[in-house]
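Renewal narrative, Specific Aim 1. Our central claim is that a sequence can be written position by position from structural information alone. The example that follows is taken directly from our test logs and has not been curated for this report. It begins with the structure tokens describing the chain, in the order in which they were read.
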């Protein structure tokens, strides 16, 4: 991806519509690189890089879970907090259908299907976050308060 060209994804369109100030961070995407790859390449703390995970409950109801890049989600803790029996990651093809994005480029903004958003509570206390902009190799940064205004996430404590 060229560093000069900024993609106009559905996520970017939603953020523009809400007049959210963002910074664009294209980077070299590696399939198994994850948040660590972006953090290394851009010289930022991986804790500030937020993963967008598409998960489902025991009835296959999808949800978005936002978690620090250097942390894992405790699905048992999350299930307990949201009042369901179980939570598990969606299969990649199912996640793609729910979000409208391909795994590796999933943004919580502008998803195809409206889903509840659960956010690790400590994410909301950060000064700045880096989150997927809707395309592999493309991260945007913003204040978490701006993210919260749009997504209205339910804070949870689900770090494993």
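The sequence written for that structure reads:
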């Amino acid at each position: 991806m060229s560093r000069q060209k900024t993609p106009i994804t559905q996520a970017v369109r939603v953020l523009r519509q809400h007049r959210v100030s963002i910074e664009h961070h294209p980077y070299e995407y590696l399939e198994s690189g994850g948040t660590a790859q972006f953090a290394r390449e851009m010289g930022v703390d991986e804790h500030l890089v937020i993963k967008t995970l598409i998960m489902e409950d025991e009835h296959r109801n999808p949800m978005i879970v936002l978690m620090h890049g250097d942390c894992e989600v405790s699905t048992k803790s999350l299930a307990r907090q949201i009042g369901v029996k179980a939570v598990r990651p969606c299969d990649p093809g199912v996640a793609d259908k729910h979000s409208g994005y391909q795994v590796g480029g999933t943004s919580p903004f502008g998803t195809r299907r409206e889903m509840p958003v659960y956010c690790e509570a400590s994410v909301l206390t950060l000064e700045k976050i880096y989150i997927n902009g809707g395309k592999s190799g493309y991260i945007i940064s913003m204040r978490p308060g701006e993210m919260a205004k749009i997504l209205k996430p339910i804070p949870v404590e689900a770090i494993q």
